[in-house]
Input
Amino acid sequence: MTLLNYMRIGTLTGVGLLALTACSNPEKTARYLIDPPPAIGQVPNRLGTAELKDVSLPGYASDEEVAYQTPDGAVRSSPRNLWADNPERAFTLTLARAISDASGATVIGEPWPLAEPPQRVLEVRVERALAQANNTYRLSGRYFVSDDRGGGTNHARNFDIVVPMQSESPGQTAAAASQAISLLAQQIATLSGPGRTIATQTQPDPFADLEPLF
Output
C-alpha cells in the first residue's frame, strides 16, 4: 500500500471519528420530560385505592427516542431528541399521580407498596401515542378497572384523545403528550368513555391466601 493510500485512510478515519464525536456530544442531545399540567378541577373519588399496572405502550412510543410521523406515513425519530426517563415508567407514574390529583383517589403504580391491599386494579393498554403528520398528538387505546369483590364493578373502556400541536418539534410533542395524559387521567377518574361495565358475580375465596396447616 502506498503512502498516499495510507494518508487517504487516515483522513477518512479522522472524519469518521469527528462525526462520531459530534453525534455523541451530550450538549447536542435534548431530553424531554412528561409533565402534565395541574388538574383544573376535582372530580369525585370513584376509585378509592387502585394499583396501576405498568402501562403498555407501542414499540415506537416505548423507545428512548421521541417519535413523530412524517407526511409519507412513516414513524421516525432522532438520537438527538430523547425522553428524559424510560417512557413506560414515566407514563405509568405520571398517569397515577394525575388521577390521584384529579380525584383524591390513591392510585399507585405497581408494585403496590402499602400493607392494605388496593380496592381495584387499573390497567391501561395504549394503541397509539404519536405526534401525527397533521400537527396533532393522538393518544388512544383501552383501559380496564377490575374489582374482584362480590358485586364489584368492572370497566372496559376506550379512549381516543387528540391534542393540537403548534409545530412538529420534540418540545411540542412532549407538551402535547403531557396534556393528553392529563385528559386521560380525567377520563379514568370519572370512569367515562365508550365501553362496558361488568359486575363481579363470584365472591373471592377468603382462604385463598392461607397456608396449609400440614
